[in-house]
Amino acid sequence: MSGLLTKDMKNRQINVGLGSRTYPIFIGRDSFRNKDLLDACGLRSRRYVVVTNDVVGPLYFERVAQFFSIRGAAVEQVIIPDGERFKTQETLTSIYDQLIERRVDRSTTIVALGGGVVGDVAGFAAATYQRGVPLVQIPTTLLSQVDSSVGGKTAINHPAGKNMIGSFYQPQAVIIDLEMLQSLPEREFQAGLAEVVKYGAIMDAAFFVWLEQNVTLLMKRDFDALGYAVERCCMSKARIVEDDETESGSRALLNFGHTFGHAIEAGLGYGKWLHGEAVAVGMLLASRLSVLMGSLTQSDWDRIERLLSSIGLPIDAPDLGRERYLELMGYDKKVLDGKLRLVLLKSLGAAYVTGDFPRDLLVEVLDGTER
Length: 371
Prior knowledge:
The protein has 13 helices and 11 strands. By secondary structure, the protein is α/β, with parallel strands linked by helices. Helix 5 (142-148) packs parallel to helix 6 (186-203), helix 7 (205-219) runs antiparallel to helix 8 (223-243) and helix 9 (258-268) crosses helix 12. The protein starts with 11 loop residues before the first strand and ends with a helix.
């Protein structure tokens, strides 16, 4: 492990290289006690509006507000409800309403303080309010720290599908404080680990082995283990975003398990299953199809199932019915010219995107979800 997170150690920095829009990801402990970090982020706003929810705000707003006010800036708060079911146009409009009421202008920086829902909705608000205002992401869940806060995807849900309305809008900086993970409920923490497993499965076989060997430490929220995992995932995500910012190629690999998972979330009703729980099952369904197509070995499928099960994630798909799965998967953003494309595995650590798979094998996988 990297020995990343001793109490007195400065934040580690990873840059997402996008030319003039390059930005840093800082990973550390007690990050908001580090006065030098504000300058390292290159943040010079005189006004910050922190968008957070009614769970995270009471825990961390004051700490974050003190950090951003070091240089005398004004810091305000906008509260939205907690939960995936509030990732809606109505919530987005409520943010706009408060920004307009407070006469927020384009020199103000929006700060997204929360998990993936807050990051997506606040990010979309920043992308579209007055055609774009500066954005800082402060992810407070494991899922958002390793995945959704990096790369500029912002969105809200539509009843027909998850993240159907959104934009690519890169932040000025991402600040990750691993101390915040200590207050995360166990179920949320487990759901975040699904996205960690994803990186090993799609592009980093050595990291997958490391996860198998260190899952107990991760479940205990050991800071060294967490720091290593978050840093490795962020490095992988940064490299993919640099290569394919708007998901026209390799970035689609990050959606491994998501086509099935998004169908599960929409089919059950947003919020019944957490995103990471749905992705965990989605990865197993995609891997099962990979096995049936002869690219992934059964033993590797067993390893994926065993790791997800050891984390405490669900491994059995809900029975939505074959036709409902196919209907919901048809709304997936990877559909091109009416043809569904899936992220599958050649082997552990090697994924690919394809629309060339036998429909009867997909049907066999989905029929296996019926009980």
